[in-house]
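Supplementary notes for students who missed Thursday's class. We covered one full example, reproduced here. Read the sequence, then the structure, then the short commentary at the end.
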Amino acid sequence: MAITAADVNKLRQMTGAGMMDCKKALTEANGDFEAAIDILRKAGQKVAAKRADNATNEGVVLIAISEDGANGKLLALACETEPVSKVADFTNLAAALLEAAVATNAATKEDVLAATLSDGRTAGEHIIELTGKIGEKITIAGYENVSAEQVVSYVHSNNKIGVLVAFTNTSGADVQEVGKDIAMQITAMKPVALDKDGVDAATIEREIEIGKDQARAEGKPEAMLERIAVGKLEKFYKESTLLNQQFVKDSSINIKQLLEQTQKGLTITEFKRVALA
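Structure (token representation):
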């Protein structure tokens, strides 16, 4: 059957796909709009498969904090190029995904992908459809769900880095100001763990080997290498674990001391940092 310009425009309004893609889909579907929509969705899957190995270093990070401040959800939706990260369809999808995550209290990225959006389709289906429309790989690069007495958040000015910090033993104190300072420190200083007990064994082993190699290059005796490496490991803990890091706004104290000064017994139970890069 003949496909009119009005038919093509109607399908474009329904799907947001390009004019040529809509005409091709309608022609293949013999003018059946529902079938044409399915064809466009399948085309999105093909695009996603072709671009599966492409890097996604651009995108947007969004955060939602519950009204009582006890829960924070962070979602990073990634794409391949900066212009796409600013397209309304992309930013609107990111917001819809976060809204669905909040509504379903999604625990994992997989839960978000399976969540149903307002039109009855899953988040994963929406991502595939937009991939076909835009022609770039789109993926949920990170998702975190954090609960505590108070959760403080920070999104960096480029909207590509987000942080959640979980506080306990607040004794009713407002920790927003200090929490924001600490979240900004996490953004800049990239701690690998909360304290040394949270550093994984592989990282510890790697740092010890690096310490040995450095000491050996300095001409230190083999018998001293282990002891020197352990000393360097302590320096690593001080520089790379949050509670032991110097506070960037006051180098005379570390983060653990800052918490104690803010509110006796105040502690951080966890933090999450997600970056698109």
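Commentary. Residues 58-147 form a domain with the Tetrahydropterin Synthase; Chain A fold (CATH 3.30.479.20). Residues 33-50 form the longest helix (18 residues). If anything here is unclear, bring it to office hours.
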